[in-house]
Amino acid sequence: MVRYGKEHKQATRQRIIETAGRRFKRDGIDGSGISTLMADAGLTNGAFYAHFASKDDLVATAVADQLRAQYANVIEQAAPGIAGVEQIVRWYLSPQHRDSPGDGCPSAALLDEIGRSADATKQAYTDGVLAVIDGIAARLEPADPRSVHTKTLSVYAMMVGTLQLSRALADRRLSDELLDEGIRNALTLLGIQEPH
To answer: Could you read off the pLDDT of 46-60 as tens digits, one per residue?
Structure first.
């Protein structure tokens, strides 16, 4: 029998987390069974419990991982200051983000299900989304990010709802217009003047 090292187990666990995160965002948490999630990772069902105590454990871990990835790939990559806030808003409410939910924000794809999830998942979501909000607030008001924390969270909620609605509309032109209006509204609420 071949014994795998700790690095192999950690790499396998990370593969399960990443493939599960994409599947959850595409098909929902409830619509993704363990056998499907493990098949996505190229593993058998039996391997699941070597890595996670339960599906809830995987959900909480995957949600945290997805928000960490969003922070690393979007927030950290944005320019400093107001220019960075505008980049984040424009990325979030872009047709590309709308059209690729599997690669996008876990909030827009899973918020309703996270609200019905176990406390550990809600806590993982809260911690992750607050890190995203902190990253935006630090660009919006570098001298006192706490002063715009709740406002930033509220604008983020509006952006999530706008993205969700844009994905649900059958009329592509209306969906595009909604995204454009969402960008204008978010920038206005954040006190950012749009260039003309």
So the answer is: 889 999 999 999 999
